[in-house]
Amino acid sequence: MQDAKHRHRDRVTQHAVHQRPAPVLLGETIAMRHKGTPPAEIQLRGAAEELNPEVPRKECPAPAIVVAADEGDRHATGTNLLQLRDGGKMFTRDDALIFEPEVEQIAAEHQVIAGLRDLVQEGVKGRPDGGRHLTEMGVEACRRYVGEARSTCYAQLLSERLRSRGVADAVATLDALAAADPDVAEHAHEFAHGLGIEAYGISTDIPATFTACGDGFSSGCRHGVIQAYFESRDQVTQPEVEALCQPFKSPTASRWVLFQCVHGMGHGLTMLYGHDLPRALTDCDLLADGWDRESCYGGAFMESVINATAPHHPGTMLAAHSHHHMSGTTFKALDPADPLYPCSIMAERYLHACYQMQTSVMLNLNHGDIGNAAKSCEGAPPSVRPVCFQSLGRDITSYTARDPQKTADLCDKARDPYRPSCYFGAAKALVDWTATTDAAFAFCRIVGHEAGGPTCYQALGEEIATLLAGGPEREQQCLRAEEPQAVTACRLGAGLPASR
């Protein structure tokens, strides 16, 4: 393997990684449709990165899940609500831990929210530059605030946009806000979850909402829709589970969109059963198709991890205030003494999906130590050890904000036999975030001349096959690999003949 310095990489130190704060997520008050009960208001709230230099910072690990994933509530029973002067409420993990300057920000928050409503209405009235104007003014208004107040400001802006102009416009506004403010970009998947949850409260037409949600931010909006669907149910039957994603199974349909539905089903079933993971997995087993079952398993494991490690995710807020009021599960999501748990207790058929998420557990337990997680993966059963390193590659893309060069650097922490699997997982994650291939091609070019280079292009080909139904379109994408060996590996992953 070539030495890293010969690839002219800028090293990302572990200390720098640790300084990036973990995401604390948010959403907005929404109306949910409950079978047989009046609509209930669900509070979805959280915090963006604290940027006020006057307020001390707390170091915590970088985000380990692209949540999907994609995108938990270990403190759900102790969730507190702060009363605002306008009668609204917001979540906080502990009232006593809020800094006094931030309390002042929260108390003044209703003034910005009222102004944002006016701003959205102004855009609705037909300004040619309404979207741009809203984004510029919204960023300017919300950046006056820090912590939860800033996040609440953005959430309210997006919620008002959703209600006044629809899902697609709200997602486009999120895209513009993410481009304008790094805080929004870091938490965009979580904001998107919140939009999907609220969108289902407005319309239960899942196919139409899926179309409006689009592919961005690891399909967080679509995941939120499916989560909200299950939260609205009292129970589900095998025919209902089988029928939910049927609208996305036409011969010309993209498997990408089907995956988001079936993966979201795993999230939703786990929430429905109060995060009793074994019970949710049993319902995933009701699906007749093996690919569907595996995708559902993945969503269930991801939801279990998120529930245990990200207590302010919009889906967690939805579950915490669910009308089901299920008693807490006895299932233990994490075991600090065992970095391979819960995979270490799972039946064989669940191991692949479990280890696809396991490094998110490891990185939560070891405070973001990539090298330590790599060593833990070496302790996994040989049959799923490569899957564990694929999981590590995915999580590395979160630590590097999906920078191809820095992602390649951190995959170097995996030893030679397992590094190709890290490349494999990273390439897939780089496609998943935007449903586009540019970043993944850039990454594979960096590592392409190393031992794991063909593996990277094969992973990219698999993602292309999921995104594109037609053979000619897949061929055109794989030609972007340019070098013959790379093109061949991409074609293999995309399900195309090795040569034209």
Task: Describe the protein in words.
- This protein has 500 residues and is mainly α.
- The chain has helices at residues 14-19, 100-124, 130-142, 147-165, 167-180, 182-186, 188-202, 206-213, 216-231, 238-244, 255-272, 277-284, 290-309, 314-320, 351-355, 358-365, 370-377, 385-399, 404-411, 419-434, 438-447, 453-467, 471-478, 484-493; strands at 30-34, 37-42, 80-83, 89-92.
- Strands 1-2 form a two-stranded antiparallel sheet. It has a two-stranded antiparallel ribbon with strand order 3-4.
- The protein is globular, with a radius of gyration of 22 Å.
Strand order of the largest sheet: 1-2
Overall strand count: 4
Mean pLDDT: 77
**Unreliable stretches covering 5 or more consecutive residues:** 1-110, 123-130
Radius of gyration of CA atoms, rounded to a whole number = 22 Å
Output the helix-strand order: HEEEEHHHHHHHHHHHHHHHHHHHHHHH
Broad structural category: mainly alpha
Helix residue percentage: 55-70%
Span between N and C termini?
A: 31 Å
Oligomer: single chain
Beta-strand proportion: under 5%
What is the count of DSSP helices, taking H or I runs of 4+ residues? 24
Principal-axis shape: globular
- Tell me about the largest β-sheet: 2 strands, antiparallel
Architecture blueprint of SSEs:
Layout: H1 14-19, E1 30-34, E2 37-42, E3 80-83, E4 89-92, H2 100-124, H3 130-142, H4 147-165, H5 167-180, H6 182-186, H7 188-202, H8 206-213, H9 216-231, H10 238-244, H11 255-272, H12 277-284, H13 290-309, H14 314-320, H15 351-355, H16 358-365, H17 370-377, H18 385-399, H19 404-411, H20 419-434, H21 438-447, H22 453-467, H23 471-478, H24 484-493
Antiparallel strand pairs: 1-2, 3-4
Helix pairs in contact: 2-3, 2-4, 3-4, 3-5, 4-5, 4-7, 5-7, 5-8, 7-9, 8-9, 9-11, 9-14, 11-12, 11-13, 12-13, 17-18, 18-19, 18-20, 19-20, 19-21, 20-21, 20-22, 21-22, 22-24
